[in-house]
Amino acid sequence: METEKQNLRLTQIHINEANPRKIEPERFDKLIGSVLVFSKMLELREVVVNETHVILGGNMRYRALTAISQMSDEEITERLQALRGFQKKTEYERQQIIDYWLKWKQDPTVATTIAAGLTEDEQKEFI
């Protein structure tokens, strides 16, 4: 097996319809908030994809990013301002977070690990 770390555009990645994990709307909403406030987490927990960019791990983070990419700048700012974790930040940190997302929306990407050379059975096991 070979792995490669790469930032991919959201449009280059494909949801894995065979992923058994489901998420309740309330928990998904909480995940979006968590990703918005703690975007550094995305570098620590990459989305794992196969050679054809089908997600093996990280479907929910990918879906959260897709939802964020579809928000207006105002929606992102309002959403952040309502989050307790964001409110605890300094004014400088809050502005950095807002600036990060407004810039990210111009070219929405996600950190990935491309896992090449896994058999179908190994991919299913990973999922």
Characteristic key phrases:
17% strand; alpha+beta
Describe the structure.
The chain is an alpha+beta fold and 127 residues long. The chain has helices at residues 25-37, 41-44, 59-69, 73-81, 84-87, 91-104, 120-126, and strands at residues 2-9, 47-49, 55-57, 109-116. α1 packs across α3 (59-69). The longest helix is centred in the last third of the chain and has 14 residues, at 91-104. The model has no long low-confidence stretch (mean pLDDT 95).
Q: Which word captures the global form?
A: elongated
Task: Kindly report the spatial arrangement of strands forming the biggest sheet.
Answer: 1-4-2-3
Output the radius of gyration.
16 Å
| Total helical segments | 7
Give the CA-CA distance, first to last residue. 16 Å
Q: What percent of the residues sit in helical stretches (DSSP H or I)?
A: 40-55%
Quaternary structure type? single chain
